[in-house]
Write a structure and sequence with these properties.
This protein is of the alpha+beta class and 665 residues long. The strands form seven sheets. Strands 13, 14, 17, 20, 22, 23, 25, 26 and 27 form a nine-stranded mixed β-sheet that branches. Strands 28, 29, 30, 31, 33, 34, 36 and 39 form an eight-stranded antiparallel β-sheet that branches. The protein has a six-stranded mixed β-sheet with strand order 3-2-1-10-11-12, with no helix packed on it. Helix 5 (181-193) runs parallel beside helix 6 (217-225). Residues 1-30 and 433-438 have low confidence and may be disordered.
Length: 665
C-alpha cells in the first residue's frame, strides 16, 4: 500500500519528483494496491481516513452461489435474484442444483422448463456454472439427463480460478443421493493433479454427509480432502445450516425461489444468495437475502435448538373450563345454557432465554370480553399459564356459540438489526366439541400399562391451583391428593374444579398386560433373522399373505435395496428375552414399519415418512419369543430400520442381532 500526501509548504520541484517516484514504485510493485491520495489543502498530519491496511490482493476474487428453485417455485424470486447478482458484480455464479421442477418425460416440456431458467440466467453479466440436482436429472429416467447433457455437456467437472480449485459433483449419481465409483475416481484424479491449490471448493446438490444411511461414496471423497483447506456447499433441503466437519466449514444453503414456509433466517428458511469473497487466501461467506445481508452462521446447532424450543412452546398445554352449573347439567344430559368459560394456555420455555408472548382475542360478537390482549414473559426453564376469561353477552347453548379465535406471537426478545425470532399464528376453539390440543391437559407418569399393579401419578404443575377429582369404575368422584394404586385394567375419569369453574371430563385407560410365555422354536435354528423381499409399488405395509417374495435368505443385519423404486420386506424369527418383565420396544424407520411379538402388534410405525420413532410395550417371560418386523420403502433411497429395547433392568439399546434366531429354511 502506498499513500501520497501533498502540502502547499513543499517546493513544487520536490513535490513533482516525489510524485514521479511513487508512480514508478506503483508500476514496479503491481502486487500491491495502487493508492494515491492527493489534496490541495494543507491539514498537517491529520488524515481523513483510518490507518488500517487495504484488504486487497491481485489474487482476490468473489463469486455468488444460487440455491434451489424447485418444489413449487414461487414466481419471480429466481429472476429477481439474477437482477440482484448483477448489482453485486461477482466474477462468476455457481448453482447447487434443482433449477427446474423436472418430473417430466416429454422432451418438449423439459426443454420449456429449461428455456425459462436460461432466459433469467441470460441477464447475468458473468459466467454461470451448473451442477445437477434431483429435479434436474434422474437416474430412474434418462429424459431429464439427456436434456441436461444436451445443454450442459457433462454431469460433473472441475476448474481452477486464481489458483483455487472448484470441484462440481453430481450427488444424484448411480442410485440417487450418492457418489458412484466412477465419479469418486474422477475426484481422486483431480485432487492428485491439484495437490496444493490456495483453496478447494466442493459443490454438490445433496448434503450427503447428513445422511448416515447412504453408502460411503461421499465419505470417501471427504477422506481425499483431508489435510487441505476446503469448503463444501450444497442445497436440497431448503433449510440453511452452517456447521464444522472434519475441520472444514460445510454450508447447506436455503433457497432462491423454491418452495418453503419462509419463516425467516432463524428458521433457516429464507430466499438468498451466498456471496463468497476470497481475500488473501481465505474465503469469507456472507448471505445476501433479497432484502438484506445475513451472516453465515444464521442457523447453527444452537439456533436449531432455539427453533425447536419455540415449536414446543407453541404446542400449548390447553385447558378449557366452564361454569360448574353448566357442566353438571351437561353430565346429566339436561339442556344447559353457558354463561362463562375460560381457556388456559400453558407455555413451556425449555431455553436459557426469556420468551415473550402476546395473545390477541379476535373480535367475537357473542362475548363481552374485558380484555383484548394478554402479553408477558416466560422466564428461562419455566412455565407460564395464561388464563383467558370468556363471558357471554347472554346465556346461550354451546351449539350456537361461534368459534373463539386467538392470534398469538411467541418468540425471543428482538435483537436490533435482526428480524424477529418468533412464531406468529392463531388458534380456534370450538367449545362444544373441543379437539385441540394434541397434548392432554392432565399428564400422567408413563407407561400406561403394567403387569401386577400401577401407581397412578398425575403431574402437579397442571392442577396446582385447582382441585383434581378422579372416579374409578363403579365409584364416586373423590379428591386426588396422592398417587393411588390399581391392580386391574381401568378407565378412570378426571375433572378439574376451580373458582366455580369445571373442566370437561377426561378419560384415561390404564391396562394390565398378561405375561406372555416363552415359545419353543423348531429343532434346527440359525443365528439372525429370516428375510423376505417383495417387489412392487407400495404405499403402505402390504398384506403379506397376498403376495409372494422375490427372494428369501437369512440375514445378520437389516437389508435394503437402493436400486428398487419401491419394495417391501419381512423379517421373521425369535428374539431372546433376558428376564421376566415389561419391555418397551422402539421402532425407527423410513418408510413404514410394524413390530409384532408373539403375533401381537407392539409398534405400528406405518406410513410414508422420514426416519421416525414410535414405541410400544409388552409383558414377556424370559426366553425366546416370536418376532416379526414388517417394512416397506415407498421411494428410492433414504431407507432406514432400527429396533431398540428397554426395561427396568435393561437400559435402552439397539437389539443386537445375536439376540435373534430363526428356523432354518
Amino acid at each position: 500500500m502506498y499513500r501520497f500526501l501533498t502540502s502547499n509548504k513543499l517546493p513544487i520541484m520536490f513535490k513533482t519528483k516525489l510524485y514521479l517516484i511513487v508512480c514508478f514504485l506503483c508500476l514496479v510493485r503491481p502486487s500491491q494496491a495502487q493508492f494515491i491520495f492527493e489534496d490541495n489543502k494543507s491539514s498537517g498530519t491529520t488524515l481523513p481516513y483510518t490507518s488500517s491496511d487495504f484488504h486487497t490482493d491481485p489474487g482476490d476474487f468473489q463469486f455468488v452461489i444460487v440455491s434451489d428453485n424447485t418444489g413449487g417455485a414461487r414466481p419471480g424470486i429466481f429472476a429477481k435474484a439474477m437482477e440482484k447478482i448483477n448489482l453485486l458484480q461477482p466474477d462468476f455464479v455457481i448453482n447447487v442444483g434443482d433449477l427446474i421442477e423436472g418430473g417430466e418425460t416429454d422432451p418438449l416440456k423439459i426443454s420449456r422448463q429449461w428455456d425459462a431458467i436460461d432466459q433469467s440466467i441470460s441477464k447475468l453479466k458473468m459466467p454461470f456454472f451448473f451442477i445437477p440436482g434431483n429435479h434436474d436429472v434422474s437416474y430412474l429416467d434418462d429424459s431429464l439427463e439427456k436434456e441436461w447433457l444436451r445443454r450442459r455437456g457433462r454431469l460433473y467437472y472441475h476448474f481452477t480460478y486464481n489458483d483455487a480449485l472448484f470441484i462440481m459433483l453430481n450427488s444424484s449419481d448411480v442410485r440417487g443421493e450418492s457418489i458412484g465409483k466412477e465419479q469418486y475416481d474422477y475426484a481422486k484424479t483431480v485432487l492428485e493433479k491439484n495437490p496444493a491449490p490456495r483453496w478447494t471448493f466442493v459443490f454438490l446438490h445433496h448434503p450427503l454427509w447428513l445422511n448416515e444411511f447412504q453408502d460411503d461414496g461421499f465419505r470417501n471423497v471427504e477422506k481425499l480432502l483431508s489435510g487441505r483447506k476446503y469448503t463444501v456447499f450444497c442445497g436440497h433441503y431448503h433449510l440453511y445450516e452452517n456447521q464444522y466437519r472434519n475441520g472444514a466449514e460445510y454450508y447447506n444453503l436455503s433457497l432462491t425461489g423454491g418452495t418453503s414456509l419462509v419463516r425467516g433466517p432463524k428458521f433457516g428458511e429464507f430466499d438468498h444468495v451466498a456471496l463468497v469473497n476470497f481475500k488473501q487466501g481465505n474465503p469469507y461467506i456472507t448471505n445476501l437475502a433479497l432484502d438484506g445481508i445475513l451472516p453465515p452462521d444464521i442457523v447453527t446447532p444452537d439456533t436449531v435448538k432455539l427453533k425447536e424450543a419455540l415449536f414446543e412452546a407453541c404446542d400449548f398445554k390447553t385447558l378449557v373450563m366452564y361454569d360448574s352449573a353448566f357442566v353438571r347439567l351437561v353430565a346429566t344430559s339436561k339442556e344447559a345454557l353457558l354463561k362463562k368459560a375460560s381457556i388456559e394456555l400453558t407455555i413451556r420455555n425449555t431455553t436459557d432465554r426469556n420468551m415473550n408472548y402476546n395473545f390477541t382475542l379476535v373480535h367475537h360478537p357473542q362475548l363481552n370480553a374485558s380484555w383484548s390482549k394478554k402479553k408477558g414473559v416466560v422466564a428461562p426453564r419455566s412455565l407460564a399459564t395464561i388464563r383467558l376469561c370468556l363471558v357471554m353477552n347472554r346465556p346461550l347453548s354451546v351449539d350456537s356459540l361461534q368459534a373463539v379465535e386467538l392470534s398469538y406471537v411467541v418468540g425471543y426478545p428482538d435483537i436490533i438489526g435482526e428480524k424477529p425470532f418468533a412464531i406468529n399464528n392463531s388458534l380456534q376453539f370450538v367449545l362444544n366439541r373441543y379437539l385441540y390440543p394434541r397434548r392432554p391437559a392432565i399428564e400422567f407418569e408413563s407407561p400406561d400399562v403394567f403387569i401386577t399393579e400401577k401407581k397412578v401419578t398425575c403431574n402437579p404443575i397442571v392442577y396446582k391451583d385447582k382441585q383434581l377429582l378422579y372416579q374409578q369404575p363403579g365409584k364416586q368422584f373423590v379428591l386426588y391428593k396422592t398417587p393411588f394404586t390399581i391392580n386391574q385394567t381401568e378407565k378412570i375419569k378426571f375433572i378439574l374444579n376451580a373458582d366455580g369453574m369445571s373442566s370437561g371430563i377426561y378419560e384415561k385407560l390404564f391396562e394390565k398386560l398378561p405375561m406372555l410365555p416363552a415359545v419353543k422354536p423348531g429343532k434346527k435354528q440359525s443365528k439372525g433373522l429370516a428375510h423376505y423381499m417383495y417387489k412392487g409399488q407400495f404405499l403402505k405395509i402390504p398384506d403379506y399373505t397376498t403376495i409372494h417374495p422375490f427372494l428369501q435368505k437369512p440375514v445378520s443385519k437389516f437389508t435394503f435395496y437402493p436400486d428398487e423404486w419401491s419394495y417391501a420386506a419381512l423379517y421373521k424369527g425369535y428374539v431372546s428375552i433376558p428376564d421376566d418383565g415389561l419391555y418397551s420396544f422402539y421402532l425407527t424407520s423410513s418408510d413404514g414399519s410394524r413390530l409384532l411379538v408373539d403375533l401381537k402388534t407392539v409398534v405400528d410405525n406405518d406410513g410414508f415418512h422420514v426416519p421416525l420413532t414410535k414405541q410400544g410395550e409388552i409383558a414377556l417371560r424370559k426366553g425366546l419369543h416370536r418376532i416379526e418386523i414388517q417394512f416397506y420403502s415407498g421411494w428410492v433411497g433414504n431407507n432406514f430400520l432400527s429396533i431398540e429395547i428397554e426395561s427396568k433392568k435393561l437400559k435402552r439399546q439397539k437389539i443386537p442381532f445375536e439376540w435373534f434366531s430363526h428356523d432354518k429354511f
